[in-house]
Amino acid sequence: MMATHQPVRDEAGEILGVCVSITDISVVKQKEEALRQSEDHYRHTVEINPPIPDSLTHGSRREQHLLQFLLGDAHRPYPGRDKEL
Question: What is the pLDDT of residue 50?
Fold first, then answer.
């Protein structure tokens, strides 16, 4: 829950009371936590998987065939669209 408050004043500026607003922010907090977990998962995935050397992804046809055999479509920027191999 988030609460905000502000004074309610008359035309002379005298305080008549207080206006209080309470907002349920549980959905926002749940989405923030889901985003944090997703970022942690992505970071962990990137950290444990070494990058593919650029020379392999743009290497000879034989290297490309070997890479495709080992990794399938995972090494391509757009899997399944490159019909060259």
Answer: 66
